[in-house]
Amino acid sequence: MAAYSAGSAKWYLGNVLWYGGLNNKTGKENQFGFLKSESRAELFFHKSDIVGSQLPVEDSPVLFREGVGKHCKPCAYEVHLLDEPRTAELLADYFRAFSHGEINFNSWTQREEVIKCFLRAWGKNVVSRLIDSGIAPSHLLALFHHRMHYTELFDAIAPDKDFDGLIALQICPTVLPSVFIDTHIEQFATWAKKWTGDHPSPSATQAALIKNLLAKISLSATLYLSFFNCLSSETILEHRGSDIEEFIRRSFSQDKMTVNPYVREAYTHAFASKAAYYQHPVFKDFITPCLLKQKMFKKDFSFVGDIESSPEFSVNPEFFILAKLLPLIGRNDESVIQSVILHEIWQALLSGRFTVDHPAIFRLFPQCTSLQKRFRHIRLSCEAFHWRAKQADGSTENRFLCRSKVCDEPRVLPVLSKAFMDFSIYDWLAHYGMQYMVVGEPSKRDLPIKLAAYFNRIRELFTRLNCRSCGLLMIPNMKYSRVEVMVWDAASNGFIRTPFQAAYRLTVFKCASQGCEQFDISHYINHCIGYKCSEIIDDRDLTEKCDEGRYICASCGSCCTHHQEKYGNTSGGETEAVQYERFYGDSPYYTR
Q: What is the mean pLDDT of residues 234-262?
């Protein structure tokens, strides 16, 4: 039996590091072991100090007292395993003794074992038994937080208390149910504003408290804190920005989010006007794009000037393209619109206003699962077109094809029933009256399909579009067509007719750097037109032409429709995956 002198009469919780095992020196089973205390000290304990007949195993949670053993080394005695029901009474003594904040219940390794011990010993009466034993409500709430039926437990642990009353009992707000905070929102907001004022530069612990609070309170409470600036805008946006963005987006649609009635009342007290609400730093960056799209939806063309004068939205491709495209519709024929918009997009890419892989482009030109599966190495927009496939029995079946393969999820059909905040280019064009030549049956000749294919082609060709002499991005060898275009004029607040020189060829490129030896030399760069072949045709790499003057593809041997009998040596037997690895391995838009 271990000889020790009693230390503190307090109870401590810990975990067994090891017990027993074969002693190599004696050849017998050890009758002792070591445990780790809450202070992380390692304490010796002897078999004779274990209360009860069951022996511990590695990592068993135990309740014990501390003492001093042989050679004045610390040891543990009166060691209780937590799976003994009688240990519950001792655990109650333990909880009565420690001060608030001594245990971080959220990361406490013994928490579940302690709760099991209480439930096993006292069952449904565990809360009343603990309250009767005089344990502080703060300890009980922290212990049972996140447990099933916690709201009911909370009502039993802290009845007839408001928020201020619980804070006075040193109860941390993070253990309060969100519905309780909603019920006492004014007291909670006052506490939050004062608490953050007392801690303008929070420590890591205080920052964690704020994070935990914002993660658990309702959206309504988050909005209330935002309205009255109870927490910094940066803090709220960091932890609840996505929820607030969704609330704002849906507030501009018919599918509004349900909030507590106190939010509407708070709004009237916090803001003298809608403009003040729109400029609030928590909401401004989410509201502004909604207001711009609302103007687009209402066909209020002042949105053009708003976008062009905005440092943020003038470089956002979604808003840039819509500002250039939508005013053209209904006032210009489709060929003019195509020439102008392709020119505007290319100039934006050339100047670095935005990149061809910008995520906002995919909000206008979404990706379909068909291209996603086939071309896993590069992100492409859906460019599905309608196809009437002939069946063996002579009938036809309506299908959609993306790059000659069946598209099971075409993203090119407008759906005007959804919220305008979620409109793609196909929805916007339909809303502005531009329909497909055959309604519901998009073809490769339709403008939106051409635009989607244009972006895809630029993404695929982009690694080839730099001059091999000076390294600069080449420009299209533009054949200009002077056209008269009806455009929105912000100065006169109306539409005017103006001459416009629009580029329409994007297969021949040249270097525009006058000091380069390749200056103004044109190069043909396109995709092979061979059946199922996606090889890039670049005249800097190919020299052989057919008698029709077309370059002969090194992959499939095809050249032109006149010699289509040569088609068939498709990709030299390479699979699409291998081929795309070879084509786009160096592309900035290529992902492995």
A: 95
Overall average pLDDT of the 175-199 stretch: 91
User: How many other C-beta atoms lie within 10 A of the C-beta of residue 420?
Assistant: 17
CB atoms near residue 148 (< 10 Å): 8
For residue 505, give every residue at least 6 positions away whose Cβ sits within 8 Å of its Cβ, in sequence order, or none. 476, 477, 478, 479
CA dihedral 472, 476, 478, 482 (to 10 degrees): -100
Residue 554 has a CB neighbour count (10 Å cut-off) of 13
CA 336 to chain centre: 39
Mean pLDDT of 329-357: 87
* DSSP state for residue 39 in the 8-state scheme: T
List, as one string, the DSSP characters of 388-445: EEEPTTS-EEEEEEETTEE-SS---S--TTS-GGG--HHHHHHHTT---SSTT---TT
Please report which helix (H) or strand (E) contains residue 205, including its range: helix 204-216
- How does strand 61-68 pair with strand 74-81? antiparallel
Per the DSSP assignment, residues forming a β-bridge with 509 are 476, 523
Domains and CATH numbers, the chain: 5-176 (2.40.50.140)
Give the three-class secondary structure for 277: helix
Whole-angstrom distance, CA of residue 240 vs CA of residue 578:
43
Neighbours of 518 (CB within 10 A): 17
H or E segment at 472?
Answer: none
Tokens of 146: 């996140």
Q: Which DSSP symbol is given to 550? A: P
The residue written with tokens 């972006």 in the block is: 455
Are 460 and 527 in contact, with CB atoms under 8 Å apart? yes
Beta bridge partners, 537, equal 526
Whole-angstrom CA distances from 531 to 387, 506, 571, 581 are 17, 22, 10, 20
Percentage of the chain with pLDDT > 70? 89
Q: Which long-range contacts (CB under 8 A, 24 or more apart) does 279-283 make?
A: 280/226, 280/227, 280/233, 281/233, 282/226, 282/233, 282/236, 282/237, 282/244, 283/226, 283/244, 283/248
> pLDDT, tens digit, for every residue of 18-29?
999 888 888 888
3-state secondary structure of 80: strand
Query: Which tokens belong to 435?
Result: 């329909």
Q: Are 263 and 393 in contact (CB under 8 A)?
A: no
Spell out where 71-111 has E strands: 74-81
Which tens digit of pLDDT belongs to each residue from 48-62?
999 988 899 998 899
Question: Which of these, 445, 480, 386, 420, lies nearest to 296 by C-alpha position?
Answer: 420
Q: Binning pLDDT at 50, 70 and 90, where does residue 240 land?
A: very high
List Cα–Cα distances, 153 to 100, 117, 142, 150, 213, in angstroms.
19, 17, 11, 5, 20
Single-letter amino acid, residue 345: I
**Nearest-angstrom CA–CA distance, 93 and 130:** 10
Q: If we measure between CA atoms, which residue out of 245, 504, 459 comes closest to residue 367?
A: 459
Rounded CA-CA distance 520/478 in Å is: 11
Partners of 174 in the beta sheet?
Answer: none
Residue 360's alpha-carbon distances to 234, 299, 413, 511, 568, in angstroms, are: 24, 21, 19, 29, 38
